[in-house]
Amino acid sequence: MQGLGQRVLVIAFDGWNDAGEAATAAASQVRAAGRFERAFGVDPELYFDYQYTRPQMKLDADGARTLIWPEATLWRPTRPDDDVSLWLLTGPEPARAWQAFAAEFVDAALREDITGIVALGSMMSDVPHTRPISVFAGSDDDDLRTHLNLERPTYEGPVGILSVLAATAEQAGIPTAALWASVPHYVAGHTPSPKATLALLDKLEEITGAKVARGELPADALAWEASIDAAAADDEEMTEYIRQLEHTRDTWDSPEASGDAIAQEFEKYLRRRGDGPRGGGHDPRR
Q: Is 169 helix (H, G, I), strand (E, B) or coil?
């Protein structure tokens, strides 16, 4: 079977890779839509800094307090599908020993006969909330790019654990794709971002062929967008800034737009950036 195969591991981590909690919410939706069992986990003492990722105290069913330690876990479906089944790897981004961390989970993936991996991430970007959320879909694997019409990543710079896991998996012979949703940077106060989560799930379904129930996400996405509309209505500067982003996005998406026109519009947009709120942070795409 071409592409990612029938046993696909979906990876999402809390932290730097997860703007608007879009990636981890997508993984949570996959887990909620099926039945999974714990297949593998690492020793948290080896990989987590408890001052950064603190253990949690929770009450159990009997009212007794229980200490819950942070963990990264590989989940397998209890009843794999005959066509395409999704495994999950979730948890907080580790604080140390990333090479050993990645090696442990890639070894576990090999034991599970995983045929392909999809890493889910999300990042703050200069994009409007009123337009469809764009998702970068890329891979360093030549066959995957050809079969799934993915892009070749060209980013250089700091990366998160997703990139380390993907590189380790590729070296072990597991083809890997990455999906990155662009979350409007000015909506930081409107987290989580269900519209970005929906976009990731749509693209995940497209490239894997696996079906994932959306639950309440479509309604949540509409409410999220409406809440930002309401906030922007009371802020003239934000309203104008969103209008600029919409114009730029529409120009890029226009079928009659030439390369020169897009370049000119992008240059105008960059010149205008000093007049409105600005995005920040590194682009973490591989």
A: helix
Tell me how long the chain is.
286
Q: Cα–Cα distance between 132 and 249 in angstroms, integer?
A: 10
Q: Is the pLDDT of residue 281 over 60?
A: no
Distance set, CA 14 to CA 78, 89, 261 (Å):
24, 11, 38
Residue whose pair of structure tokens reads 């597991």 in the numeric block: 174
CATH of domain 7-220: 3.40.50.10900
What pairs with residue 117 in β-bridges?
9, 176
Give the domain ranges of the chain: 7-220
Nearest to 48 by CA among 107, 109, 93: 93
Q: What is the pLDDT of residues 52-105, one digit of tens each?
A: 999 999 998 888 999 999 999 999 999 887 789 999 999 999 999 999 999 999
pTM listed for this prediction: 0.86
* Res 252: pLDDT: 74
Cα-based distances in Å from 278 to 186, 241, 242: 8, 10, 11
